[in-house]
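hiii so um. not sure if this is the right channel but i have a protein structure encoded as tokens and i wanna go backwards to a sequence. like what aa goes where. can anyone help
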């Protein structure tokens, strides 16, 4: 008597017919890989939080709440004021600067302020208890932070120059799709 062999299932075809991926994406909104990465990051943050709060947790909790309030009530208005000031300064120029031009100031300013936020005790020359931990003279950090900040702004200026190099030296008018928008439109398709 011959043994009957069952056909091997085609898992791709089965998944396609059941529409598992489509249903999951419709219910969740993203792929399953994104959900797994998100759950892994939550698990890692939970582990770090448990380890961090195992010590002096009321002081750490107060520190987090204080930083959240400081960020929302002090730093966000300062970010907004700086951003609007840069935008207004660039708008006063004769040639219109695209809104993306603000990013050439915004990014190095953000990185410089982030470095200052992380290393502020060292930059402001607070020796205790940081000098023994770094094993460096406390006077070097202000100069290094200023040099790094200047390098970030110089690199950003060089990148802006490279990106706008053809427009700076060209006497030809800019292509219609690259001209700044003037704010008025006649509705005709032939207008640039």
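sure thing!! here u go:
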């Amino acid at each position: 008597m011959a043994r009957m062999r069952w056909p091997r299932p085609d898992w791709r075809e089965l998944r396609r017919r059941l529409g598992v991926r489509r249903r999951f994406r419709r219910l969740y909104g993203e792929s399953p890989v994104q959900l797994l990465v998100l759950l892994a990051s939550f698990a890692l943050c939970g582990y770090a939080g448990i380890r961090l709060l195992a010590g002096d947790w009321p002081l750490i909790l107060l520190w987090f709440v204080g930083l959240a309030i400081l960020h929302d009530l002090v730093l966000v208005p300062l970010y907004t004021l700086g951003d609007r000031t840069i935008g207004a300064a660039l708008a006063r120029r004769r040639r219109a600067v695209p809104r993306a031009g603000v990013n050439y100031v915004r990014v190095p300013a953000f990185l410089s302020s982030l470095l200052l936020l992380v290393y502020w005790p060292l930059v402001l020359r607070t020796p205790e208890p940081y000098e023994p931990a770094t094993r460096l003279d406390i006077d070097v950090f202000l100069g290094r932070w200023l040099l790094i900040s200047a390098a970030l702004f110089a690199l950003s200026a060089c990148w802006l120059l490279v990106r706008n190099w053809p427009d700076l030296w060209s006497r030809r008018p800019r292509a219609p799709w690259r001209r700044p928008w003037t704010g008025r439109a006649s509705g005709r398709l032939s207008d640039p």
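oh and The two ends are 83 Å apart (CA to CA).
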